[in-house]
Amino acid sequence: MSIAGLILAAGRGVRFGGDKRLVRLPDGRTLLEATLARHAGLSSPLWVVLRPGDEAASALARSYGAQILICEDAHLGMGHSLACGARALMDEPELDGVVVDLADMPWVSAHTLRLIRQALAEHGQAVVPLYQGRMGQPRGLPASCLAALARLRGDEGARHIVSWQDAVHVDVDDHGILQDIDRPADLTRFTALASARPPSPL
User: Fold this and answer.
1) For 110-150, how does the pLDDT look when each residue is reduced to its tens digit (9 = 90+)?
2) Which of 49, 99, 142, 195 is 20 to 30 A off residue 163, Cα-Cα?
3) What kind and span of H or E run contains 194?
4) Alpha-carbon 65 to chain mean position
5) What pLDDT shows up at residue 19?
6) At 7, which helix (H) or strand (E)?
7) What is the mean pLDDT of the segment spanning 163-170?
8) What distance in Å separates the CA atoms of residue 61 and residue 192, rounded to the nearest whole number?
């Protein structure tokens, strides 16, 4: 089956106070690079949605073999970025589904991504990972959802077209699915948590 990766990375990091995507983690990678790395060798095609004038992020994404989508309306909300990605994916031949990922969640493991992809391929319906009963990211969507995703606006997300309670739930031993970086304090706190936990399977 053909399952794409779609990384939403067009936010401005207002709450963080700067471009959080290019902030470095203790291992030397940026947040965006950590997200790209888990898709390497798994997601094909891999698309990254960026805002206009995003040269540094574009160069980094291309170094991982990703295709770039510039969302002119990214400042209007994540729904516009998701719609931009969905429209591009509708042109991909024989695409069966997509895993939608976020650039500010660097601690999701490649193993978790692989499990989401496997569940999407097996069931052909929406997939959400769970850690200790809590829903996290990234999430899998069948290609049949793309047309509806392409119409999203503002801060609308896939929850407007998918019932996540009725989706396929995949239990994972990966606290990273809950750890999104909105503020510098989040980075400090989650870095400490990540260093205290044993590594997830590759």
Assistant:
1) 999 999 999 999 999 999 999 999 999 999 999 999 999 99
2) 49
3) helix 184-196
4) 16
5) 75
6) strand 3-8
7) 95
8) 27
pLDDT value, residue 146: 96
Report how far apart, in Å, the C-alpha atoms of 24 and of each of 20, 33, 103, 147 are.
9, 9, 13, 36
Q: What is the DSSP string of 28-91?
A: S-BHHHHHHHHHTTT-SSEEEEE-TT-HHHHHHHHHTTPEEEE-TTGGG-HHHHHHHHHHHHTT
Please, what is the end-to-end C-alpha distance for the chain in angstroms? 21
Question: Which helix or strand (DSSP H or E) is residue 127 part of?
Answer: strand 127-131
CA dist., res. 44 & res. 189, Å (int): 33
Query: Cβ neighbours of residue 85 under 8 Å, at least 6 residues apart?
Result: 6, 8, 47, 49, 69, 98, 100, 149
- Residue appearing with tokens 């809950």: 178
What are the tokens at 147? Answer: 């047309």
CA gyration radius, the chain = 16
Residue 191 confidence (pLDDT) above 80: no
Which pTM value belongs to this model? Answer: 0.89
Considering the chain, what is the average pLDDT of its residues? 89
Question: Which tens digits make up the pLDDT trace of 104-115?
Answer: 999 999 999 999
Rounded distance, CA 49 to CA 114, Å?
A: 21
Tell me: pLDDT of 23 over 90. no
